[in-house]
């Protein structure tokens, strides 16, 4: 091929590559970003929110504090971080699936779910109405735009949180990896387990070799236990069946458990009120130290 012909071919190729990169890659990416911004209901970051109100079957007000989110109405309680992260994340990523022009049927908002929030000192609201006939979307409207639009039913599930869902249900918050001592006392079980310097576990006063994996599994089983219901105002006068204490570098947290009929109730050092827990919780605990050895039965 002649040099002049090769040069022309290279120029044509360079032009074609430039065209592709601009129109097929760069411009397409810009168009997608512009479309995504247009489809978003709100332009906000989760950390921008200062307060939040959920109005469905009940009205729940939350405020962000230095230690995290807190419910301030209808009760005063710590908020569940995971549930709140899901709600705020859904709100921040919420997208319009379709805008409805000239839509004027007020009946779709007869029993709405309303989310009100403040972000960067500005107030916003989102109202979610009934399902569409296809059951795939819900009618919605927001304070920062006119008209009615559709959002997915899946997004609605991320937004619709009741008081139990938003209330902190954790019974233990010590970092589980820092727990150095696990104690049980009561008619059900009397046992103390201590983590040794080699990251294994010992039972003081017992000449047994414990299975580290079984003790760690037991520790995580207890640490992950959560309140199922809050029995506000309830008191129990009978003797507890079990007291559990987790001790680590950040202190000790405890859980006192009662059996009432077939149900289990507990009071955590983190919660002043009695809560209901999984009624099968005790069945998952060992009855003696032998069940935590390599040859012992599963705990």
What is the CATH domain class of the largest domain? Mainly Beta
What is the count of helical runs?
Answer: 5
Sheet having the most strands? 9 strands, antiparallel
Mean pLDDT: 89
How many DSSP-defined strands?
A: 17
Strand content: 25-35%
What can you see in these coordinates?
- It is built from five helices and 17 strands.
- By secondary structure, it is an alpha+beta fold.
- It has two domains: 46-166, Immunoglobulin-like, CATH 2.60.40; 176-292, Immunoglobulin-like, CATH 2.60.40.
- The strands form two sheets. The protein has a nine-stranded antiparallel β-sheet.
- A hairpin with a 5-residue loop joins strand 16 and strand 17.
Tell me briefly what this model is.
This protein is of the alpha+beta class. The protein is built from five helices and 17 strands. The chain folds into two domains: 46-166, Immunoglobulin-like (Sandwich); 176-292, Immunoglobulin-like (Sandwich).
Write the layout of secondary structure elements.
Blueprint: H1 3-39, E1 49-55, E2 59-65, E3 68-73, E4 77-78, H2 81-93, E5 98-100, E6 113-119, E7 122-131, E8 137-142, E9 148-152, H3 153-159, H4 163-166, E10 179-185, E11 191-195, E12 201-202, H5 212-223, E13 229-231, E14 242-248, E15 251-260, E16 263-268, E17 274-277
Antiparallel strand pairs: 1-2, 1-6, 2-3, 3-4, 5-9, 6-7, 7-8, 8-9, 10-11, 10-14, 11-12, 13-17, 14-15, 15-16, 16-17
